[in-house]
Give the backbone structure.
Amino acid sequence: MRIIFAGTPPFAATALDALIEANHDIVLVLTQPDRPAGRGMRSTASAVKLRAQHYGLTLLQPLTLKTSEVQDQLRECNAEVMVVAAYGLILPKVVLDIPRMGCVNIHASLLPRWRGAAPIQRAILAGDPETGITIMQMDEGLDTGAMLLQHDLSIMSTDTTQSLHDKLSVLGAQTIVEALELLQRDRLVSSVQDEAQATYATKITKTEAEIDWRQSAEQINRAVRAYNPAPGACSYFRDMLLKIWQAKVITGSASIPGEIVAISREGIIVACGTGLLQIEIIQKSGGKKLVIADFLAGNPLRVGEYFSVQGRSAVKHD
């Protein structure tokens, strides 16, 4: 098929690889303009741009798709379909109508659950047992279009946003290839989303990544997993901001949330609103991620000290 591909991050680049491997004709690649990134804030190309350059594909990086100049360029492609994956720009109706078969989106959830910007993180935070990929016919709404194909994926108790992202990127690539094969044979059956079942995956903020130790150990552990790799679940201790990258729920209880109740080479055990959390990998601001044994070698802690409950420096209770 003659395809315009629109995407930006690694999730989308995996799908682009699969479409090329399936011998589709990628007539144009759309991706976001280069952005400053990293500590040096150097202008950095997107993962999709790098893949497009690798394959020698025609590339366009508009700031918007709302100009007649860009829209004319899209029309000139004479594409059958536009495949969109985590592109990051709004597609106006005039653009949605340009390809003969419209625009289809690779969305990382089982719609209508978790429409929006952060479906992977929100699924982990909610404790969902599964997620998946939905191929959707795009309309003017926010992930509201008709569903064309879905495949589910179990969420493991150890999955982080990064590990689940990597699994879903592969599943998304496989699913879009399958969907296009069915589309070519006129065998895709669309179904309208049930609005009553819709939930929204709002964008993750740094503020919500600060741990509230009054929550259950299970919920805090979900937060640690959901905010890995970004922005990182964090908590104040002795006026230091610490990021927690790996933890697990421990059987038991203690009376005061945030209290360190045990310390060993395996982890720092902290009381939560209900249950205990064992912190296993931690990071000081400006430092490296360390397993607890290495962290304790340079940062001795004491049983009875406290992490901040939320939003304030830790204090020692008598």
The chain is about 25% helix and 25% strand. Residues 161-184 form the longest helix (24 residues). Helices lie at 10-21, 47-55, 68-76, 93-96, 119-125, 161-184, 217-226, 292-298.
